Amino acid sequence: MEGGGSYGSDLDNLKATELRLGLPGTDEPKKLPSMLPRSSKWAILEATKRSSSEIKSVEKDQKPAAKAQIVGWPPIRSYRKNSYQAMKMEAETTGMYVKVSMDGAPYLRKIDLKVYKGYKELREALEDMFKCFSLGEISRMDESNVYEYAITYEDKDGDWMLVGDVPWEMFLSSCKRMRIMKGSEAKGLGSIP
Amino acid sequence: MTYFPEEVVEHIFDFLGSHRDRNAVSTVCKAWYGVERLSRRSVFVGNCYAVRPERVVARFPGVRSLSVKGKPHFADFNLVPDDWGGFALPWIEAFARGGLGLEELRLKRMVVSDESLELLARSFPSFKVLVLISCEGFSTDGLAAIATHCRVLRELDLQENEVEDCGPRWLSCFPDSCTSLVSLNFACLKGEVNAAALERLVARCPNIRTLRLNRAVSVDSLSKILARAPHLVDLGTGSFTIDHHAEAYHRLINNFTKCKSLKSLSGFWDASPRCLPAVYPICGNLTGLNLSYAPAIQGADLIKLIRLCLKLQRLWVLDCIGDKGLAVVASTCKELQELRVFPSDVCGVGTAAVTEEGLVAISSGCPKLNSLLYFCHQMTNAALVTVAKNCPHFTRFRLCILDPGKPDPVTNQPLDEGFGAIVQSCKDLRRLSLSGLLTDQVFLYIGMYAECLEMLSIAFAGDSDKGMVYVLNGCKNLRKLEIRDSPFGDAALLEDVGKYETMRSLWMSSCYVTLKGCKTLAAKMPRLNVEVINERDESDEMEENPSDLRRVEKMYVYRTVAGPRNDAPDFVWML
Fold first, then answer.
1. Are B77 and A49 in contact (CB < 8 Å)?
2. Is the peptide bond before B409 cis (omega within 30 degrees of 0)?
3. Between chains, do A45 and B510 touch, taking CB under 8 Å as contact?
4. Residue B410, SS3 per DSSP
5. Please, which pLDDT band fits residue B412 given cuts at 50, 70 and 90?
6. How far apart are CA B239 and CA B168, in angstroms?
7. In this complex, which of B78, B342, B487 lies closest to A80 when CB atoms are compared?
8. Which of A175, B55, B225, B519 has the fewest CB atoms within 10 Å distance of its CB?
9. Is A82 part of a structural domain of the chain?
10. pLDDT tens digits for range B435-491
11. A176 lies in which domain range?
């Protein structure tokens, strides 16, 4: 009983060396009725069987890893899985090229929207691309503080929308082509691209 | 009945449609066995290793139609190593040597070589129907052999096979004299296709009713084909990408409108939503629609399309249809019998996958639903109870909750009660796949209520041997049991060894069964093949004589009259 402090610290050390399932740094999981054996295969399952409240905090990191490790899950036929992967890869590698026209320019350009992180970068890229036509700056405002040009896009439904209203990701998935509209026509579309 | 002349008995047997009935009458007496075997025209072999091909040939010399299945079902999910077996060649060789007049061959999950296809094509002059599902091992050269030599070919149906592409010439191998095609499905081929040859082929086959094109077929080609074959009943569209302003698009719409008989649509590989209006004219007639390879069709476009499909009986979609989309299906497709919702990684950001809500909506809107395959992110007991009440006619119920072992998110309970409700309500249930957090209790329910159950798939479920025993004891009609990653061991395996002779097969992988258990089973039951599949385990050392107490990674048990097979690769131990 002497040196209660050291005894206490022994216990702490013991706890540190205790073997248990679960990610390091997390509390011991609640024991569910099913007692799973301690083998690496079951670690994944045990981890996913924890109560939802505990799962929430670790799930974000853990989920992709767990999914990647389980062979043959989800149970989809290899043929279908391969098709999906091929489609995904195509979507990722082929880029998202859309035509861009500018009022007054003799020809159109094509840009890969996937390359840009957001609206600011896109605007800058367009500025760059079209300045050779000496049609004026896209970002220039006229006397009444309205932009000379408005950047618009055609969406999935065929409507012409002002670029910048929706979240970037949503814009990416709905933009089919773009048009840089001259101020006189663009007046109705508002002032802030 | 012994005083009836044989011709009369044979004539009576003609009315027996199912294999089971014919099998049953053949066991009544020797005379009936004799009549039955000579008049049998169609044989179904559920497991290619259950019987030797030569024996089938000897017993049924009049057989014209053969169906054979090879690899265990879990091979679909990469759980069976590539060289495991399931070869088609011995079957084709036996039938060729036996001089039988084979006309139809249907193979599933088998290894089919070009050599076997060549032999098939050359050996049977009356050959009419070839159906290959989830097979591999052949190339388009094998198809060329079929096209060249099968003069009266009616059906060439390739479903989800891995086919090596050796170029487009195979299609041109159909001779000009070939006019008999009724069904041609090459949707799974990855390579280019000779458009002109395809169009000519369709033009000279007036009876063609099923045509499923692969991704390489352009919309232009499709348009021409529709113009030539307006009587099509089943169409796989090919790539379906088109600039919707172009003239080709308008031609397409016109040609679709002429197809009054079109009942089933699939394909849409690269379809963009803008092209969909081309099919609107025929949507009202559709009974089958497969959009499960069209990730670009989502949200509003998908819903618009579905709202037109009032007669739909079979729908396959991706989960980006969302619960909202399923609600639209529920309110529109009152005739729906089969629904499959596949998971998609390819859907864009912000698209909703499906949950229990979608399924509940479907169940209340579509009372005729009897077949379900549903991949979702979560499920609740309450939802399953509701579904069970709304749809008591399920014959196939396969639910896959994507997170293995996930409980009911609302109550945090296992899904025992939900699945219990399903088996209790659906008296005709023949096939069931379980998922989510499940204890032994669900197996108690299954054993108690699932009287008609023939196939059960279990993954990451159960607590103890009791679970498996409940199923083996209870399900009288069980034919196929496949289990992965569940805590069932030797005690469960050996509880009722006689049971396995009443079943086609048992698969167990990543369970608690040990080598000793497998050896015991093999010793007790000589008419079962007990296969232990060992892939090289990097963590273990290569052992000459592994301890019997070691757990087996994969075990496949099946009844057979053929004895241990002689084509097993090294990593398969026949005990």
1. no
2. no
3. no
4. coil
5. very high
6. 17
7. B342
8. B55
9. no
10. 999 999 999 999 999 999 999 999 999 999 999 999 999 999 999 999 999 999 999
11. 94-136+147-185
Alpha helix stretches (DSSP H) within A49-188 = 52-69, 78-93, 119-130, 168-174, 183-186
Among B334, B327, B450, CA closest to B388 = B450
* CB-based contact B160 A36, cutoff 8 Å: no
Task: Give the H/E segment covering residue B144.
Answer: helix B140-149
Sequence ranges of the domains in chain B: 1-40
* pLDDT lower than 50: segments of chain A: 1-12, 27-67, 190-193
Residues B322-350 pLDDT 10s: 999 999 999 999 999 999 999 986 444 34
Q: How many domains does chain A have?
A: 1
DSSP B237-293: E------TTSHHHHHHHHHHHH-TT--EEE--TT--GGGGGGGHHHHTT-SEEE-TT
Which pLDDT tens digit goes with each residue over B417-448?
Answer: 999 999 999 999 999 999 999 999 999 999 99
The CATH architecture annotation of domain B1-40 reads Up-down Bundle (1.20)
**Chain B residue closest to A157 (CA)?**
B274
Q: Which residue in A33, A78, A170 is closest to B463 by CB distance?
A: A33
Cβ within 8 Å, pair B463-A72: no
State residue A59's pLDDT score: 40
Cβ atoms of B504 and B559 within 8 Å: the answer is yes
Q: CA-to-CA distance for B104 and A19, rounded, in angstroms?
A: 60
Phi, psi of B533 (to 5 degrees): -100, 115
- Residue at A131 is within a domain: yes
Say how far residue B530 (Cα) sits from the centre of its chain.
24
Q: Would you state the pLDDT for residue A35?
A: 40
Q: Using CA atoms, how far apart are residues A126 and A147, in angstroms rounded to an integer? A: 15
ipTM: 0.85
Residue among B160, B348, B412 whose CB faces A52 most closely: B412
Provide the pLDDT for residue B9. 84
The CATH number given to whatever domain includes residue A175 is: 3.10.20.90
Nearest to A52 among B300, B409, B484 (CB): B409
Q: Which residues 128-147 of chain A have a CB within 8 Å of chain B?
A: none
Which pLDDT value is given to residue A2?
A: 41
CB within 8 Å of B262: residues ≥ 6 apart: B232, B233, B234, B235, B256, B282, B285, B286
- The string of pLDDT tens digits covering residues B494-549 is 999 999 999 999 999 999 999 999 999 999 999 999 999 987 654 454 455 567 88
Let me know if residue A56 belongs to a domain. Answer: no
Q: What is the pLDDT of residues B185-217, one digit of tens each?
A: 999 999 999 999 999 999 999 999 999 999 999
Note whether residue A165 is domain-resident: yes
Report the gap between the CA of B37 and the closest CA in chain A (Å). Answer: 37
Q: What is the DSSP secondary structure assignment for residue A30, as one 8-state letter?
A: P
What is residue A3's predicted lDDT score, i.e. its pLDDT? 39
